[in-house]
């Protein structure tokens, strides 16, 4: 019988022969290309061979970038070789950005890379305050001329006349150019606190409807005020009630003072008006 040809095993079979250990990664540099070969397990727990090919290029960079590349690596890449590690570094394409400051700059034709370094003769960086020329004010040839000196003296005299016209204080609304405000109307009649009562020791869960039900039977009410917390909106424990008639307010004080309401004993008294200094 003919002898069967020897069957050559593939790289995957050679890897399976090993006792579960993955071969170390290898790098080969040839013809300006760096070929990196790695082995790992996929999602199905199978050994997979990964081959990455990098093109080696030499570029001229600035001194700061060249210095930064000499820094020692840290973290998970502390023991890595020079160059990016695909396991910890994501290498992407270079992004070139062009900053446009004005329409004229964007419409200008690019004559060369070195043209941008030339000084622009059309742009004016400084201007003389005396003759409005393109030079420093200190080196103006007309700074000592009679016309310029006369204008400067007139401006100084006008400024001095404005400051020396009067030394009296003028209110802002009466100064020159200020907007004239209309005269204020006389204040209206003050509120009548003689018919107001203060109810304290209220529950924190009391609302205006509960207060209205409590005092409605004593007579007509002009105003109800229930003090509340700004943050929670709950009652602070006291309220003010303005009755239309003082007799109704006195009747409410007589009946509600010491009255049990919502498991609490109410304290009702006349509202004390604020003391004016």
From TrEMBL:
Pfam families named in the record: eIF3g, RRM_1
Keyword Transmembrane helix: no
Record key words, sorted: Cytoplasm, Initiation factor, Protein biosynthesis, RNA-binding
UniProt keyword Protein biosynthesis, yes or no: yes
Task performed by this protein: RNA-binding component of the eukaryotic translation initiation factor 3 (eIF-3) complex, which is involved in protein synthesis of a specialized repertoire of mRNAs and, together with other initiation factors, stimulates binding of mRNA and methionyl-tRNAi to the 40S ribosome. The eIF-3 complex specifically targets and initiates translation of a subset of mRNAs involved in cell proliferation. This subunit can bind 18S rRNA.
Subunit structure: Component of the eukaryotic translation initiation factor 3 (eIF-3) complex.
Protein name from the UniProt record: Eukaryotic translation initiation factor 3 subunit G
Lineage: Eukaryota, Metazoa, Ecdysozoa, Arthropoda, Hexapoda
